[in-house]
Structure formats: structure tokens, C-alpha cells
Design goal:
The chain has 158 residues and is α+β, with helices and mostly antiparallel strands. It is built from four helices and eight strands; from the N terminus they run E-E-H-H-E-E-E-E-E-E-H-H.
């Protein structure tokens, strides 16, 4: 029996930044194509909060906006904007709470890529940080980031 796939949880030294990384046996281009397609985000969502993509392009670029139907206790909709972008190596988006979901890809070989996902609330407004603390969102988010990377690996290698 093989061991379960796990991502490595990174200690960022900042409670408001949760990060994990994993090595995926796939090209950065293949992985980035999934991350840059909001229609595929539900497949990799380790938080199980994404219900469906409801608006936006099939391929995200800097400045792209995309809407998601979400569920976390209650149903809601959120509009995200891509705020960080470098083809095949970096993509990050945020919504009204102004925390960022960031993916960084590093080629280790033509068919092996290190992917780091980071949830970064360090530059969010105080009200957003207070809401995250009140909801005890940071431990949940750390697990979700780690699970997302495992699901991304499974899809890319499957």
C-alpha cells in the first residue's frame, strides 16, 4: 500500500500567512493552465467551499475578474480579481476582503514542478483580519491550502 500524498506545510512566521508546497510530476504549463482557468477551481478546492464558477474568462490574466458561487455555512457569491501574474510561474487573486490566494510555480525539470500556495492576509484591512480571527479561519485555511495542493497534484498526475 502506498503512502498518502501530502503537501509540506511551511512555517511562514506570520499567523496571517498560511503556505504549503508540493512537487508535481507535470510541466509548469500544464499546472498553470488549471490554476488560470476559474472553471477548474472547484476540482482543486481543498476548502470544499467553491460551488461553481459563475462569471469570468476561461483563462485568467492580470486584472481578470471572476465570480464564484461559494458555501461556508451559508451560500454567497464572491468576485475575485487577479492581482499577481506571470505566465506559467505566478498567479494570485483577491476579493473584497483583500486577502490573496497566490500560486508560485518553479520548474525543477521539464516534467517536474514545485508549487507553493499561499493565503496572505498580511496586507488586508484591519476589519478583514479581525473577521478572519473571529471566525478562527487561519487553522482552517492552512488545512485547505495543503489539501488544495494534494488535489492539484492528483489531477495533474492522474
Amino acid at each position: 500500500m502506498s503512502e498518502p500524498i501530502r503537501s509540506e506545510i511551511l512555517n511562514t512566521g506570520n499567523e496571517q500567512i498560511k503556505s504549503a508546497r508540493i512537487v508535481i510530476n507535470a510541466s509548469a504549463e500544464k499546472i498553470f493552465a488549471i490554476l488560470a482557468n476559474p472553471n477548474r477551481h472547484k476540482e482543486i478546492d481543498g476548502s470544499s467551499t467553491i460551488q461553481e464558477n459563475i462569471s469570468g474568462p476561461d483563462k485568467l490574466i492580470l486584472g481578470s475578474k471572476f465570480g464564484m458561487k461559494m458555501h461556508l455555512g451559508v451560500d454567497y457569491r464572491i468576485l475575485n480579481t487577479v492581482v499577481e501574474y506571470k505566465e506559467n510561474s505566478l498567479i494570485g487573486w483577491r476579493h473584497v476582503g483583500r486577502w490573496i490566494w497566490r500560486y508560485e510555480l518553479v520548474n525543477l525539470s521539464p516534467q517536474m514542478t514545485q508549487v507553493t500556495e499561499t493565503f496572505d492576509a498580511s496586507r488586508a484591512p484591519l476589519i478583514s483580519k479581525a473577521w478572519l480571527s473571529l471566525r478562527k479561519a487561519y487553522p482552517f485555511t492552512q488545512r485547505a491550502v495543503a489539501k488544495t495542493l494534494v488535489q492539484l497534484k492528483s489531477i495533474c498526475e492522474g
